[in-house]
Amino acid sequence: MTQYVIKRVGLFIPTIILASLMIFSLMRLLPGDPALLKLLGDEGSVHFTDEDLARERARLGTDRWLPIQYVAWVGGMLKGDFGESLYYETPVSDDLRERLPVTVQLTIMGIGLAILISVPVGVLSAVRQDTRLDYGLRVFTISGVALPTFLTGILIVFIISRWFNWTPPLGFAPIWEDPAKNLQQMILPAIALGFYDSCFIARVTRSAMLEVFREDYIRTARSKGLAEWFVVGRHALKNAFLPVITIIGWQFGRVISGTVIIETIFLVPGMGRLLIDSILHRDYTMIQGLVVLVTLLVMLVNLTVDLLYAWLDPRIRYA
Amino acid sequence: MTTRGIGSIAGSPSLGRRGLDKLGPAWEGIRRFSKRKPLGAMGAALLLFLILVAIFANVLAPYDPYETNPTEFRYAKPGGAYLLGGDDVGRDVLSRIIFGTRLALHVGIVSVVLGAIIGGALGISSAYVGGAFDLLVQRVIDAMMAFPGLVLALAIMAVLGSSVNNVIAALVIVFVPGITRILRSQGLSIKEMDYVLAARAMGCSSKRIMLRHILPNCVASLIVLSTITLGWAIIVEASLSFLGAGVPADMPSWGGMLSGAAQKLIQVAPWLIFFPGLAIALAVFSVNLLGDALRDVLDPRLRGTGSG
Q1: Tell me, what's the pLDDT at B108?
Q2: Which has the least CB within 10 A, A81, A121, B192, B239?
Q3: Do A299 and B308 touch (CB under 8 A)?
Q4: Where are any strands of DSSP class E within chain A?
Q5: pLDDT along chain A (319 residues), means of 10
């Protein structure tokens, strides 16, 4: 296990360095100079001198050699300093600190709901294979994976606003201030976010369960007279859960992508909304910080899932 | 296995010789595919329909998709002169959906084809050449795959700015790593085959081995992957345009039609959401059906690499 952990973590470090280098280079490809863009402002005023420009460049640090800029940027991030927002002129880390918990909460609720709904549905579908119930659930889940996240989101807003006269709330209550109000605000976005994955995980669970049902140990468990619920719960589900965990890990990046859309539709002030706003404001330091943070988050989750998987299944770690 | 799979799609000579169908082996292949995978055939038919709509968009669209007529057709209800209603500046929703089909398929097909070419070339050469080159390519791919797809596409669009070609470029960058990864693993197993050894013994160059021996055996997977990726491309393009970071806002795109006024006026003018949404769902659904069926027939090993 130790060897596997070392190998897996050893892969993690060069990947995150390379990924940060990529996003850094991408942001340096931008047409124009951030200092110039900033001084020009939205109106394109020309009231500044070359001296102002040089001073602004020195302040933003864009007058330095690119590799130095990269090292300074990474070094800053390690200390929790993500630079200054080009638009708001406040530290990027302030916004990240405020927005990160919202997105993390939304993601956890979305995936949590998806697992809570999909695993029982998948198990039920497998246990009642080829019955009318199974067909019904399968048709539903297959149509579900054809619906892009933003359509699900808009549909939910449409249905709720039509029949319950609901509109996306303007104010936002963080969970540590007003848990009841917060959950009320987050539940619909979480459902919209988790919908695709509910359908997807249900399909995976069903096929994993069906595969396990064919194993000898299931027949043994049944023939020694164990109750059917015990066979399904203890013997089958426990083994069928492995592929399901992997899929959930793989889906994490997709879910994070989904939060960008869902936060925009439901006006949730998380990192996704901030990313869209920053793109509109051409706030490159903010975009850079957000992308790195989100990517790091996804990579950490994938690493955890991989290690968890190896811990649960010895076949992986000795392979 | 894989080569036989292609035969049943593109039509193998042996079928023609048996004289099962006088219309030729290609037709026979299609007929057999439809019989085996009726849902896949339905997806293919729907996709073909959408492609025809895209090609003949200027003939089919009753109005100019850019023409505004706020006084007469602003939020016009469906069923009038504007069959599917009018939007916030009085443009014909039907015409915009028809031209949106052209945009969605243009962006989707071009980005998938480019992604398949680049990813295929990188994956196969990485597998065949191996060594330091393989290691380098794989680390770069690892890093690119670490980004959530839509987030990477958004960051690229933020730098490049709104335009059709930039959306295509962003999609290609997002698609290449996944395609490279799968093609590399295929290449690695094919590389060990006896016929590759035989080709090398005969003195074939590396280029010839890759192009004439390894590539043809990867074509089946590449076709399946491309179809699955096309569904994803349609979703990502629509998402980007929906978020205002895709094609320019006035261009008729399915995703763009759903954003802005349409979303705020969901109660007053639900058709502004309903019809473009239906178009997206239909396109993605048909591509997914076709992709699943092709995968089962051509390359069952790719199971589980569903569209994201």
Answers
A1: 96
A2: B192
A3: no
A4: none
A5: 84 90 85 68 64 76 80 87 82 89 92 92 89 88 83 85 69 75 86 91 90 88 88 85 82 89 89 91 88 92 86 73
Cβ neighbors of A286 (< 8 A, separation 6 or more) are: A85, A86, A87, A88, A92, A95, A274, A278
Instruction: Please state, as a whole number, how many other Cβ atoms lie within 10 Å of the Cβ of residue A187.
Output: 12
pLDDT digits (tens, 9 = 90+) for A198-239: 998 998 899 889 888 888 888 898 899 888 888 888 888 888
Q: Which of A27, A154, A254 is the closest to B263 by Cβ? A: A154
Q: Which two tokens stand for residue B183?
A: 């093609």
Say what angle helices A2-28 and A66-78 make with each other, to 10 degrees: 130
Chain A CB within 8 Å of residue B218 CB:
no
Which residues of B fall within a CB distance of 8 Å from A299?
A: 146
CA of A155 to nearest chain B CA: how many angstroms apart? 9
Output the CA–CA distances (angstroms, integers) from residue B308 to A204, A242, A254, A258, in the order listed: 14, 20, 7, 10
Closest residue on chain A to B281 (Cα): A147
Q: How far apart are the first and last CA of chain A?
A: 11
Nearest CA to B148 among A258, A150, A92, A114? A258
Cβ(B261)–Cβ(B272) under 8 Å? yes
pTM of the predicted protein model: 0.85
Question: ipTM of the assembly?
Answer: 0.86
